[in-house]
Amino acid sequence: MLEKSERIDAALNLLSPFLHGKEKALKLASICFLSRGHLLIEDLPGLGKTTLAIAIAKVLGLTFGRIQCTSDLLPSDITGVSVFNKNSSVFEFQPGPIFNHIVLVDEINRATPKTQSALLEAMGEKQVTIEGRTYDLPRPFFVIATQNPAEQFGTFPLPESQLDRFMMKVSIGYPSRAAEKEILRGGSRRREIYSIVPIMGTEEVREIQDIIKTGIYVSDKILDYLLNVIEATRKNSYILAGLSTRGALALIQTAKTDAYLKGKDFVNPENIKELAEYVVPHRIIFKDEYEGVNKKEIVKSLLAEVPVPA
Questions:
Q1: pLDDT tens, 243-289?
Q2: What is the mean pLDDT of the chain?
Q3: What is the DSSP code (8-state) at residue 159?
Q4: Statement to judge: residues 141 and 29 lie in one domain
Q5: pLDDT per position as a tens digit, 202-233
Q6: In angstroms, what CA-CA distances link 109 with 41, 104, 124, 158?
Q7: 70, 240, 254, 261: most buried by Cβ count inside 10 Å?
Q8: Is 92 helix (H, G, I), strand (E, B) or coil?
């Protein structure tokens, strides 16, 4: 098991030169991917979201698809359509971009609610139904969706129930001065990323995901600790609706992946505390009078108040 976690480390190290200043985002995206979840990146344009998605796909030997969301995007543009073949006189299904291992959904909040629902259904069920027929999506399957927090004109914000479908919500942020200087010196390396020789393959990635799901131990003490964290979110005076059971499952699954990547076969409280600020805030609903507070800081303060098991 340790050998495979080292293979993931090697893959991440290979990508570092292509992703100056994005090492934290790369690690979080990898944790989300290996946990079989989906990632929402809320950030300004031009900070490397597309480069991040392509890099992960290439180094792991997976297929990559991109969906550019606009107000006229239809569900069929995502899932695919049946086209009549004159030669065979039958309708043949033409898969859409959702039939890739890693799918980048650019500016998801620019798609209409109907199109968003079609995408989120595919994310949740790992399959799509078209004209009465059900098609399984590839495994592994990972959606990286982006949205611009600064531009709201012509957008359709995701409601809380749909935000909950994303295992993690992160922000890449501006690179440091030193990292940005390196980027400016070297220019765009997007073309070089496409030529990366994969370190792993589909089967090995699946095997690692299975190991994380079933091979990382979670003790009763850790489960009780997690339940205390959940209860704290539900009883907090700032919060109207606390962490759901799905959110709790996401937190424990990402904690297992974090433990695995650190060479451990068990979860400890630090694994949960390190990832809570990326898994919890977008899943809780604040009371109207506290809507402007910093959600991450509230989550951190809650974690600080919950006793850590001995």
A1: 999 999 999 999 999 999 999 999 999 999 999 999 999 998 888 88
A2: 87
A3: P
A4: yes
A5: 999 999 999 999 999 999 999 999 999 999 99
A6: 12, 13, 18, 6
A7: 254
A8: strand
AA identity, residue 106? D
Query: What is the rounded distance in angstroms from the CA atom of residue 53 to the CA atom of residue 126?
Result: 19
Rounded to 10 degrees, the C-alpha dihedral 175/35/309/228 comes to: 100
Residue 249: CB atoms within 10 A of its CB come to: 14
Q: How many distinct structural domains can be found in the chain? A: 2
Look up residue 309 and give its amino acid: P
Secondary structure element (H or E) that encloses residue 84, with its range: strand 80-85
pLDDT tens by residue, 137-172: 999 999 999 988 776 676 888 877 788 889 999 988
pLDDT digits (tens, 9 = 90+) for 86-125: 888 788 888 999 999 999 999 998 999 889 888 888 888 8
For residue 268, what are the domain limits?
216-305
Q: How far apart are CA 125 and CA 136, in angstroms?
A: 9
Residue 310, domain member (yes or no): no
DSSP string, 190-230: HHHHHTPPPSS-HHHHHHHHHHHHHHSB--HHHHHHHHHHH
At position 307, the amino acid (one-letter code) is: P
> Reduced to 3 states, what is the DSSP secondary structure of residue 306?
coil
Which is it for the CA torsion 287, 288, 290, 295, positive or negative?
positive
Listed in sequence order, the DSSP H helices in 126-197 are 160-163, 177-186, 190-194
- CATH code, domain with 38: 3.40.50.300
Q: What is the pLDDT of residue 35?
A: 96
